[in-house]
């Protein structure tokens, strides 16, 4: 009889721990969501957060950028420039974009870059200085982009000292 009471108490304890963990996760999710909404306004995407000027470079015939470009236009004041493949590679080299992270287009904003299909929320944070002065760019190689959304399941942060960090979103 004593063993049954012990098992009932143990099972009750596990349920309690699970319930507390679920409540903590729910609270943290709400806090993160509220913080994100304060950072940007969402209305079918990021809308009119800032009017930051950006140059969007690509080399024809890139066909994947149309969907991603629409999302960027809601965030940035974009000037689009088609360049030759040689000019494109020179731009990437001059910006210091690591070869392993190069993609189908490069966006230049105030001397920093966004390479490939970096998630729009990360772009919004980057544009407004959220990554700090030591970051020279964000990147997501084309091969890691989701073909349905043309954004990635994460991105890379490239620091001025050459360090590269992988961020999962």
From TrEMBL:
InterPro entries: DUF411. This is Metal-binding protein. It comes from Pyrobaculum aerophilum (strain ATCC 51768 / DSM 7523 / JCM 9630 / CIP 104966 / NBRC 100827 / IM2).
């Amino acid at each position: 009889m004593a063993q049954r009471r012990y098992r009932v108490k143990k099972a009750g304890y596990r349920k309690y721990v699970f319930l507390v963990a679920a409540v903590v996760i729910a609270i943290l999710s709400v806090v993160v969501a509220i913080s994100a909404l304060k950072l940007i306004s969402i209305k079918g995407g990021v809308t009119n957060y800032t009017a930051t000027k950006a140059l969007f470079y690509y080399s024809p015939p890139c066909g994947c950028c149309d969907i991603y470009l629409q999302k960027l236009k809601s965030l940035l004041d974009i000037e689009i420039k088609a360049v030759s493949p040689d000019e494109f590679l020179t731009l990437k080299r001059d910006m210091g974009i690591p070869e392993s992270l190069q993609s189908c287009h490069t966006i230049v904003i105030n001397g920093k870059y966004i390479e490939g299909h970096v998630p729009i929320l990360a772009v919004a944070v980057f544009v407004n200085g959220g990554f700090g002065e030591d970051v020279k760019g964000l990147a997501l190689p084309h091969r890691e982009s989701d073909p349905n959304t043309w954004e990635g399941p994460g991105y890379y942060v490239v620091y001025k000292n050459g360090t590269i960090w992988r961020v999962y979103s």
